[in-house]
Amino acid sequence: MNKLKIGVIGAGSISDMHLQAYAKNHNAELYAICDVNRERAAAAAEKYRMQHVYTNYADLLANPDVEAVSICTWNNSHAEISIAALRAGKHVLVEKPLCRTVEEANAIEVAVRETGKTLQVGFVRRYDANAQLVKHFINQGELGDVYYAKASCIRRLGNPGGWFADPERSGGGPLIDLGVHIIDLCWYMMGRPKPVSVSGNTYHKLGNRSNVNNLSFYKAADYDPATNGVEDLANALIRFENGASLLIDVSFTVHAKQDEIAVKLYGDKGGVEIEPELAMVTEKYDTILNMAPQTDSKSIDITQAFCNEINHFISCVQKGTAPISPVEDGVSMMKMLCGIYESAAKGREVLL
Ligand SMILES: NC(=O)c1ccc[n+]([C@@H]2O[C@H](COP(=O)([O-])OP(=O)(O)OC[C@H]3O[C@@H](n4cnc5c(N)ncnc54)[C@H](O)[C@@H]3O)[C@@H](O)[C@H]2O)c1
To answer: Cross-referenced Pfam families, in alphabetical order (predicted)?
Structure first.
């Protein structure tokens, strides 16, 4: 089988995870890279020995040899670049979130339908080995009917600033950046039930806390302490058509003692904690059992999860099979996220 020629658009932080994973895949050839920042693109091209360097994504897409692209740019360009790539005949792996609005998401879905090309949404947590193991157990009925899930992704100090803090480029704060991961993981495990309503709150209480001393945190390349337009914290309750519900909270900053990640699902036959440490709970012979599945990593192995995501993308493109994180799921996710922002703005529950 011929190696698939890959173009990567956006050469910032997360692109290296994609590049590393493609470099390890024997069915892929890293071929072209693009970033509006030429130095960044050139550095990646040198590191991964890519032949073609661009500063305009349209030029990369005009290269007929590029067959598939990873889109690792700011959220505001995901829709435009995805649609242009599909219409240029390329297969697309687009980073999460799919885009910023439901309208953008619908336009991407139309482009996927009309071109027949593969589009995989980068819901990387689905591709972690522990997540796949839990999914298998759930599919085998081990948890029974999963009727409730709750998840938290709390950073006590972690507003990255730059484009992340600019709603125009990001579409929002911790909800769209972190919430997308934990909502998606729960929703996928619950069997992707149809969301029918959301009730959410967002808070702009603490700002970006650039004043804090003695504690370092990740900052975007173009960090500017004077600029921050996104929420510090969001919470939400999502109701599904089948009666199940999902409760989440996420923050870039809050007066918490420590950072926290938790992803927990409850069914009528058993429960599971995917984060902070894989664990399962059930009842047998009138006894509650806490079980600790023996796997290589107790928590997500992010490097391996990206490799699995990219291997899956290459395989779907080469075999013509549907990805496990298709565009429809990206559209549903945008309905939930945008519904939560709308509910927070209106101060009441919103029907989807
Ligand atoms: N899956 C994950 O766990 C994960 C983690 C971090 C970021 N992300 C996502 O990846 C994307 C990028 O995030 P990041 O942290 O790498 O940001 P980043 O700022 O480090 O990198 C983004 C790069 O895209 C470039 N860029 C922006 N618009 C462009 C355009 N139109 N054409 C070409 N280049 C353009 C920027 O110059 C920058 O180098 C975001 O959508 C983010 O949500 C996903």
So the answer is: GFO_IDH_MocA, GFO_IDH_MocA_C
In Å, the largest CA–CA distance within the chain is 65
Percent of the chain at pLDDT exceeding 70: 100
74 ligand 1 Cβ < 6 A: yes
Q: What pLDDT was estimated at residue 222? A: 83
Q: Write the residue with the smallest CA distance to atom 15 of ligand 1.
A: 13
54 lines ligand 1 (CB under 6 A): no
Domain residue extents for the chain: 4-123, 126-304+333-351
Instruction: Identify the CATH assignment for 4-123 out of 3.40.50.720, 3.40.109.10, 3.10.350.10, 3.40.50.2300.
Output: 3.40.50.720
Banded pLDDT at 32 (limits 50, 70, 90): very high
Closest-CA residue to 177 (of 74, 73, 96): 96
- Closest CA relative to residue 267, chosen from 146, 173, 172, 167: 146
181 CA distance to ligand 1 middle (Å) = 16
Can you tell me the mean pLDDT for 270-288? 98
Stated as kind and residue range, the H or E segment containing 107 is: helix 102-115
- Residue 254: strand, helix, or coil: coil
Alpha carbon distance 57, 34 (integer Å)? 6
CATH number 3.30.360.10 is the correct assignment for the domain at 126-304+333-351: yes
Name the pairing type of β-strands 4-9 and 28-34: parallel
Q: Which residue has the tokens 């069914």?
A: 267
Q: Three-class SS of residue 74? A: coil
Residue with token string 């013509």: 320
pLDDT tens profile 293-348:
999 999 999 999 999 999 999 999 999 999 999 999 999 999 999 999 999 999 99
Give the single-character DSSP code of 255: S
Q: How far is the CA of 121 from the centre of ligand 1 (A)?
A: 14
